[in-house]
Amino acid sequence: MRFRVSALLATVVLGLGAFLPAGAAVFYHVSGAPGAWPAILEPVGLRPANPAAADVIVLRAGAGNATAEIEGWLSAGKQVILEGASPAAAALGFVPGEQTVQVQSVKDRRLPELRIIWEDPLTLPRFQLPPDATIYAEERWGGAPIIAGMRRGKGSVLWIASTPGREGYER
To answer: Above 90 in pLDDT, residue 135?
Structure first.
């Protein structure tokens, strides 16, 4: 069996690791279906839990409005992962612009010589980010942000411009 890991998945997990407190072991996803997040987070030792016990909260695209809860989670030291455009992402400053960008080639800012090419290109809005956000990955040719993070309160936010895909390794 061939082991497949996407560059997006690796960057998300590595980026998340930079923010996780020692001993973090559980995550909670806010939506009806977890998507690929268990496949991404469980191999690095995170297991599902209820929101009160979770160290990592995943807000999937279309998960509804959790804007009121986010500040409480961040103040409590939780790590929040946001997918794409949502009211919660916008409240934190990740705002989709009117301009779109075709994404297939991605540059990891920590390893720019690595050639990352998505299996299936996506057309995504070009997002505006909060001033204190750090961009970890961007569209190679136009520089549109794809993955970014920032600290808030005792916690942190990791934002990705799209879902990680159905299986978690397509992007």
So the answer is: yes
Residue 155's pLDDT band, with cuts at 50, 70 and 90, is: very high
How many beta carbons lie within 10 A of that of residue 129, not counting itself?
A: 16
Residue 40 tokens read as 């991404």
Alpha-carbon span 153 to 92, nearest angstrom = 12
The string of pLDDT tens digits covering residues 36-92 is: 888 888 888 888 887 788 889 888 877 666 777 888 999 999 999 999 998 889 999
Rounded to the nearest angstrom, the gap between the alpha carbon of residue 122 and the centroid of all alpha carbons in its chain is 16
Check: CB of residue 27 under 8 Å from CB of residue 42.
Answer: no
Distance CA 148, CA 132 (A): 10
Q: How many CB atoms lie within 10 A of CB 22?
A: 4
Question: Is the pTM here over 0.70, yes or no?
Answer: yes
Q: Give the chain's radius of gyration (CA, Å).
A: 15
Strand order from edge to edge, sheet including 155-160? 47-48, 26-30, 56-59, 79-83, 155-160, 145-152, 134-139, 95-108, 116-128
